[in-house]
């Protein structure tokens, strides 16, 4: 008996529904079956995958049979051949030389920077003021990634760079899900704006590369220093273009996702006073007993409830809301055969809302994670993807989000500003709150 079911609606109806509301469309298919055929062309059939077992086959067991496909082609326009877009042997080579960036001893150093930058933000926040939380978190995480990865103080350029990142992500998302990809060389208003944003980011990137070459010892313990010391398989230094691609990847994938998750966390806590109160109690207890004696990573280990809040936020609002794969060859998955060029849509956002797995899945309940990860199927909960292409910086992202959340919660409450309406998810390259979220600052 086949485990593949056909979607009952027409191909045309599916296309327009996905364009209008991709998240709603994916959640609605969750109940149809493990693998849902969208009844597209026989040359390039498309499926939505709702089964953890099938996800594990695609991302782990038989990942060599798949490529990222269209999503990679679109992202390359911005970040080139970085870790997020490279395929095959190049991706394996890049992952090997980037792994030391995220070794535990480095993350321990990064954690101190996270706390320093967050405390600097806390000094700027004023009791009673209203802040655009998305912009605030974006600039905070951008400053953190610049210091941890490139040992660079952005200072006054932080807002300009954050805006450039925002433009780049919005325009990339529009292209990613558009039926027609207009070549980058065509001077449309969107392409012109996109290129301007890329130039803004590149100016900073190439400036940092030049400074590193002039004083390599000062950058020895950074990602950039590591890249400068890396050699190709031919024994040559990495070309500036490849270093640029990895830096652009970190700028776009390494901070915007964390910022979005934090905005969702603050919003969710404002809706759940009990969870918010418990977070404040933990922050007060840890800060009261340790003072400034704990380094950032040791502090992180003392914050189990803050970690649960982040984990639950990532369940409901995973930044990587969709994962796309294409079969590079005919492949068998769980006894089902799929032809070459088959496309697969895997949505952590939808799968994390499976009531059969999570129970009351729509509710924000951090205590789900009180005992670590419960006995769910391996790929029932996967906010960082998985397999060879899983997020290389997942541990750093978790440490960063937990420390920011707890550090600010120890000093402030953030409440929703009236008149904004319901928080609506906006599925761009990562998942954010549509139109951002204004929140009022209350010093505790």
TrEMBL record:
Pfam families: p450. InterPro entries: Cyt_P450 (IPR001128), Cyt_P450_CS (IPR017972), Cyt_P450_E_grp-I (IPR002401), Cyt_P450_sf (IPR036396), Cytochrome_P450_Monoox (IPR050196). Residues 147-174 form a coiled coil. The keyword Transcription does not apply. Keywords: Coiled coil, Heme, Iron, Metal-binding, Monooxygenase, Oxidoreductase. The keyword Iron applies. PANTHER family: BIFUNCTIONAL ALBAFLAVENONE MONOOXYGENASE_TERPENE SYNTHASE (PTHR24291:SF50), CYTOCHROME P450 FAMILY 4 (PTHR24291). Belongs to the cytochrome P450 family. This is Cytochrome P450. It comes from Paenibacillus gansuensis.
